[in-house]
Write a structure and sequence with these properties.
mainly alpha, elongated, 0% strand, 2 helices
Length: 75
């Protein structure tokens, strides 16, 4: 018995937000490791940065429904 999934697990927007958060956390973790912090502190810095990056990029990358009327009201 085969079941097909017609829709993806995550939307493209959600995948982009999580990817950017992952990159942010990796960069923060790497930079703190290069700065001489221990492994635990570097991991904590990366996880914190990734956790804070999710709502930041969620707000920065607006949903499709929010931005449809803004461009038409200026003319």
């Amino acid at each position: 018995m085969e079941t097909t999934v017609d829709r993806p697990l995550l939307s493209l927007r959600s995948a982009l937000i999580f990817l950017l958060a992952l990159l942010t956390g990796g960069v923060a973790s790497g930079l703190s490791a290069v700065a001489g912090e221990g492994t635990a502190r570097s991991l904590l810095a990366g996880l914190t940065a990734a956790g804070l990056a999710v709502p930041f990029f969620n707000h920065l990358i607006a949903a499709d429904e929010a931005g449809t009327d803004e461009g038409e009201s200026h003319g």
